[in-house]
Design goal:
The protein has about 130 residues and is mostly helical. It has one domain (about 25-129). About 70% of the residues lie in helices and about 0% in strands. It contains four helices and no strands.
């Protein structure tokens, strides 16, 4: 019995056979996945900005930041810049790499989480007023 560790190319469709059944995206689907991922990253940038602003507003009402790293970055006024820098780097990575459904799903999920955080902050602000 002879085995191989390196993936082999299936000459019929160019799909690497050793990658657990992953398929390559192409054409219109790949373009759509690429654009949805970039839109989700843009939404993440906006939502991260809104999260920082609403967090500052909550801190003005004597709230406490529960995340220790965010607390340190908030104190140094660099939280927004760190978040936006990381999202910019992610955006460039997405632009330069091939479209991936997993990255698109993760970016959309993260945008949903941040939307929830911003809505939660706004609700607490409304209740505090």
């Amino acid at each position: 019995m002879t085995g191989t560790l390196a993936p082999t190319l299936d000459p019929s469709n160019g799909d690497p056979a050793g990658l657990s059944g992953r398929s390559w995206l192409s054409g219109a689907v790949a373009a759509r996945v690429h654009w949805v991922t970039l839109i989700a990253i843009g939404a993440l940038a906006v939502l991260n900005g809104a999260d920082v602003v609403t967090t500052h507003m909550l801190l003005a009402h004597r709230a406490v930041e529960a995340n220790p790293l965010s607390s340190i970055l908030l104190a140094s006024q660099s939280l927004l810049w760190v978040k936006l820098t990381l999202l910019t780097l992610l955006g460039f990575k997405v632009i330069k790499s091939r479209p991936r459904l997993g990255v698109m799903g993760a970016a959309c999920f993260a945008a949903g989480i941040y939307a929830t955080a911003v809505l939660s902050n706004l609700l607490v602000l409304h209740l505090a007023a």
